[in-house]
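#lab-general

N.A. 3:47 PM
ok so I finally got the sequence cleaned up, no stray characters, all 83 residues accounted for. can someone with queue access submit it? mine expired

B.Y. 3:52 PM
send it over

N.A. 3:53 PM
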Amino acid sequence: MKVKVEVFFKEGVLDPQGKTVKNALQHLGYDEVDDVRVGKVFTLSLKTSDREAARKRVAQMCEKLLSNPVVETYSIDTVEETR
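B.Y. 4:20 PM
back already:
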């Protein structure tokens, strides 16, 4: 099973990289860009077919390593594998 984890700063936490990207886009003429939030994406391949067990294990991984729960939030989605 493949699982996708997206990690972003929580609302209200400064995102200097996002601000830099926003400024660069506006400098290039994309004035409609109002805000940019930069995050991380992890794609994990797991040795299980139990979706609920996988979500729980990945949530533990996020809390312990993949995110900083103090300033970041995360989402977990299963990804359908094509063979």
